[in-house]
Amino acid sequence: MPREIYLVKVGMTMTEGMVAQWYIADGDTVNQGEMLYALETEKVNLDVDAEVSGIVKHQVESGVMLEPGDIVGYVFESGEKIPDEMQATSAEVEHEAKAISQARIESSQGPAQEKPEMAIGSVKSSPAARRLARENGIDLTQVQGTGPGGRIIGADVVAAKSKGVDAPAREVKASPLARRLAAERGIDLGSIKGSGPGGRVTKADLDTVVTDSSSSGGSVSRTKMGVVPGDTVPVQGMRRTIAQRMHASLQSSAQLSMDMEAIMDDAFKLREQLVAEWESEGIRPSYTDLVVKAAAVALLKHPRMNSIFTEKEITLLREYHIGIAVALPEGLVVPVIRHADKLTLKEIAIESKRLATAAKEGSLGLDDYAGGTFTISTLGMFGVDSFTPIINEPQSGILGVNRIFDGVEWDGDRPIKTKKMNLSLTWDHRVLDGAPAAEFLSEVTSLLSAPYRLLV
Predict the structure, then answer these.
(1) Widest CA span in the chain
(2) Is residue 3 a contact partner of residue 51, using CB atoms and an 8 Å limit?
(3) Which of the 8 DSSP states describes residue 174?
(4) Are 303 and 362 within one domain?
(5) What is the pLDDT of residue 107?
(6) Residue from 392, 422, 426, 417 nearest 291 by CA
(7) CB 355, CB 364: distance < 8 Å
(8) Distance CA 214, CA 7 (A)
(9) Are residues 262 and 332 in the same domain?
């Protein structure tokens, strides 16, 4: 009996994902524990290992968006008969149904526009590729496939459209994520100079400068987000996940916010000293690192802020894992500094840098996202004085870090120039009231005002 290969579900909020790359070719042998395929979701890229040994049969090609738990392939025992085709997945059936329905509509409308025959039965192609080919009148027999076994994927059709189908599109080295984004944005990968190994096109290359035809016939430089005025940006992938979760968070909890100032003179001096002290090790602590450490210490004294609310009970968590919101061109990700209460300030600086780098490179793993109990979001680098962060459910609080500015304190009647920073706390009023929330925030500001306590 063949063993199913499922699309692994990563976390409670995952709603869709895809096989970004098959590491074991269709028909090749895999050993138990060997990397089988690369999973890509809205936020996580993860390598999935084979649970058993045997011969791999692909059920879907790379790049097809599926639901968690969908079957993506099978592993057959040695000597077991392998059929040419397996039962289609629900996603493939849906795509095929839409394709057939559209074809019937087009045929009923008459030959208003000549379209070449698709020859679907003799060409290996993904449902997305067939849809794009049908919409753009492209003959799939003239398109060079870059998917597993030469299968045509959506990005191949986009490339063929831009170059014309008379000459097959040349092979372009690109990451699976870059291929998917290029197909979604209508970008010709062949026009992008890759900055990855061997000229490989990466996601970062697509997010820099791309040209687009304007109404005046010229070219428009896209923003770092890859858009220009007049574009329609689909709400999908990470953007859709963020929209759904933030809206659900506001609807399902009683969120309130408050601000409080921290005097940062000593924190400013301490950071300068630590930057100089750790320069030879390449460690450069940030103000956010100081806030992470201060928040971890404060959570120990105010455990209700480190809790989860359910309809019947409030669970005070035993571990203190602080998430750090990292801004990417397509949205926010929140990797987690685990056991922040047990880490030194130096260890927090090292881990936060690693997570931020991995987030921007798209190499965060499952463990980097898991188990956050409290979140810190930073907008100070943009000159923000105050904002209202939204709780990352099912957590009970999130702390916003704003810019450091020149303020004034009074020594009697004498004004003293000082450095200050505003902190913005949002908490769930179902878990704790305003007074205990203010006590937590006051503890954080007190620790930042006397930051040497964070080193002991």
Answers:
(1) 91
(2) yes
(3) B
(4) yes
(5) 40
(6) 422
(7) yes
(8) 40
(9) yes
Question: What is the spatial distance between Cα 405 and Cα 419, in angstroms, rounded to a whole number?
Answer: 6
Instruction: Mark whether 324 and 430 lie in a shared domain.
Output: yes
Specify whether the CB–CB gap between 309 and 428 falls below 8 A: yes
Which CATH number is 353's domain given? 3.30.559.10
205 assigned to some structural domain: yes
State which residues form the domain around 254: 238-455
430 and 285 within one domain: yes
Same-domain status, 219 and 250:
no
Lowest-confidence segment of 43-47, 135-139, 248-252 by average pLDDT: 43-47
Q: Is 84 a catalytic residue?
A: no
Integer Cα distance of 348 and 445 in angstroms: 19
φ and ψ of 312, to 5 deg: -110, -20
Known catalytic membership, residue 247: no
More confident residue, 128 or 388: 388
Confidence category of residue 43, pLDDT binned at 50, 70, 90: low
| pTM to 2 decimal places | 0.59
- At 317-333, the pLDDT tens digits run 999 999 999 887 767 78
Residue 349: strand, helix, or coil: helix
Q: What is the pLDDT of residue 145?
A: 77
Question: Could you say which of 28, 247, 367, 429 is catalytic?
Answer: 429
Residues with Cβ within 8 Å of residue 221, at least 6 apart in sequence: 209, 211, 228
437/378 same-domain check: yes
Q: In total, how many domains does the chain have?
A: 3
Residue 114 forms part of a structural domain? no
Domain presence at residue 372 = yes
Query: What pLDDT is attached to residue 317?
Result: 93
pLDDT tens digit string along 117-126?
333 334 666 6
Q: Which of 28, 367, 385, 433 is catalytic?
A: 433
Per-residue pLDDT, 39: 84
Mean pLDDT of 283-301: 96
User: At which of 235, 259, 291 does a domain end?
Assistant: 235
pLDDT tens digits, residue range 124-175?
666 566 667 766 778 777 787 776 566 676 667 777 776 665 434 445 677 6
Alpha-carbon torsion 108, 112, 113, 115, what sign? Answer: positive
Residue 55 sits in a domain whose CATH number is: 2.40.50.100
In 109-230, which residue ranges form alpha helices assigned H by DSSP?
127-136, 154-163, 176-185, 203-206
Residue 45: strand, helix, or coil: strand
Tokens representing 185 are 């944005």
235, 266, 292 — which closes off a domain? Answer: 235
Same domain, 197 and 267: no
Nearest to 267 by CA among 436, 380, 415, 426: 380
Q: Are residues 161 and 132 in the same domain?
A: yes
Query: Which residue type occupies 392?
Result: N
